[in-house]
Amino acid sequence: MEFQGEDEVSPRKAEYLKYILESGGFVKTTDIANNFGISPSTATKAIREMAEAGLLIHTPYAGATLTEKGEHIAHFIMRRHRILALLFSHYGFTPGEACAEVKRFEYHVSRDAVNRICASLGHPMMSVCGRIEHEEGCCIEPAE
């Protein structure tokens, strides 16, 4: 399933989506504020913007839940990070170094590039950061 606009998620909002996914798909505004060291009003604003983009369902004073689109994008964000970190570990980076280095640029790497790296690594199931969840057809060569 493809969703339009996936590459338009800002790095900060991508981190929020990843955090929400890792938190079981639901968070309170204070969870995001505390985890990212931002004010509750900044967290609320970000949650509202992500809800308007169809990534979350926001219930004021209760919290936010990932939509199907938000969950799909969050899974890709995690997959991209883990594949890139694994790639760096193949070049001598420790797991911590690979993770830190990848965080510098991962949001600029396209789905196509991730799929090609995944294929070149033999469709790995595990990264230095954890299990890699693959999308349907993630390593199929693009049609020319």
Summarize the structure.
The protein has 144 residues and is mostly helical. It is 51% helix and 10% strand. The protein has 2 domains: 10-66, Winged helix-like DNA-binding domain superfamily/Winged helix DNA-binding domain (Arc Repressor Mutant, subunit A, Orthogonal Bundle), CATH 1.10.10.10; 74-131, Winged helix-like DNA-binding domain superfamily/Winged helix DNA-binding domain (Arc Repressor Mutant, subunit A), CATH 1.10.10.10.
Descriptive notes:
This protein has 144 residues and is mainly α. It folds into 2 domains: 10-66, Arc Repressor Mutant, subunit A, CATH 1.10.10.10; 74-131, Winged helix-like DNA-binding domain superfamily/Winged helix DNA-binding domain (Arc Repressor Mutant, subunit A). The protein is built from 6 helices and 5 strands; from the N terminus they run αβααββαααββ. The strands form 2 sheets. Strands 1-3-2 form a 3-stranded antiparallel β-sheet. A two-stranded antiparallel sheet has the order 4-5. Strand 4 (126-127) and strand 5 form a beta hairpin.
